[in-house]
Amino acid sequence: MLNLYSTQIETISLHRVGNKNKNEGIFLSEESLILNDETTGLLKEYFFKPFREKEENYFKLSHEVDLEFNELFKIVTEIFKDRDGIHLNSKKIATHLFEQSNHPHIKSGEVYVAYLTGIMLDNTKVDAVGIFKSELKHDFLQFKERSGNLDIVIQQGINVNKLDKGCLIFNVHQEEGYKVLSVDSNRYDTKYWLENFLGVDVLADENFYTKNYLKFCQNFAKDVVLPAEDKQQEVLFMNKAVNHFAKNDAFEESNFLNEVMENPELIPEFKHYKVEKGPKYSIEDVSNFDIANKAVSDARKKIKNVINLDTNIQIKLDFINPESAEKFVEKGWDEERQMYYYLVYFNKEQKS
């Protein structure tokens, strides 16, 4: 889990990188930036806001031959070994980015390279190298008093509420390629940023397995439980699955199936579905892993717990107390109306 609240920007360098394909140049600053308190606060919000708002999908720096051939890995390792040389290495990072900026769609922009301290990652304080890029320029209005009137002056600048691209490379797991987070608001050139510049691969950690296993369960519920049972059982299955993850620190598949699977006849179906669909989620050979609470919370927000009926009625089932749906909701068939029905038991209506 990531907490950027106490993060400090120790040093920061600013360069400009153009599009090499369009014969745009590169501008490398001679010295690092000196920030005042106001600018520091503004930049911290600009840099860190998108990382607080997105899912924690971690990557690692990699290379198809050997990690040592990943250019960014070599530069970042130098920075972590010698912080005094960060400005020189920030020039290498900007130059590396410039060398990858050779597609017509890639926009020129300012590149910030920062050394960050005080980051809380998985309850441990760590340092990180932050690389951020601002690309899109926006028009904004300025006003000047002139001869007793207010004039409008149109200028261009960066919208500090939206970072275009950024990554945090944490000083952990160096041997595996560090732990990396990336954001990209402009999806048209994601390959250039993730593959060509960063050179990352998915980090298969507890967050990755927790998130993917729950996505797999969600599709199993839709593809197998729903046709075999009904919508109520589909919702209940996911209800139980999420709660099982929420109350355990580690996942063990046999315990999960015994607790969650209401119909034991569906257990072989689950195992067959995992063989068939598991590779899509990279869980085909995974049956034990530590559970990431943040991934469970994110999944709970996305999983639908509503039964939509064709009579314009919705029944919302509680994810916190799934046993209520089993005890107090019954499904049946009315011969006279030739319609299904849900029977809901209760003592009194709750005030909203």
The chain-level mean pLDDT equals: 89
Give the helix proportion (percent range): 25-40%
Overall structural class, as computed from helix and strand content, comes to alpha+beta
Q: Could you tell me the radius of gyration in angstroms?
A: 26 Å
Beta-strand content estimate: 25-35%
Poorly predicted runs of 5 or more residues = none
**Total beta-strand segments:** 17
Domain module count: 2
Give the distance, in angstroms, between the N- and C-terminal Cα atoms: 34 Å
What is the count of helical runs? 10
Gross geometry: globular
What letter string, H or E per element, gives the SSE order? EEEHEHHEEEEEEHEHHEHHEHEEHEE
Q: How would you characterize the largest beta sheet? A: 7 strands, antiparallel
Describe this structure in words.
- With 352 residues, the protein is an alpha+beta fold.
- Helices cover 38% and strands 28% of the residues.
- The chain contains 10 helices and 17 strands.
- The protein has helices at 37-53, 71-81, 86-100, 190-198, 206-228, 231-247, 253-260, 266-281, 293-302, 323-328; strands spanning 2-3, 8-17, 26-28, 59-61, 109-121, 124-134, 138-146, 149-157, 165-170, 179-184, 200-202, 250-252, 288-290, 306-308, 314-316, 329-334, 339-344.
- Helix 5 packs across helix 8.
- The chain is globular and about 80 Å long.
- The relative contact order is 0.11.
- The model has no long low-confidence stretch (mean pLDDT 89).
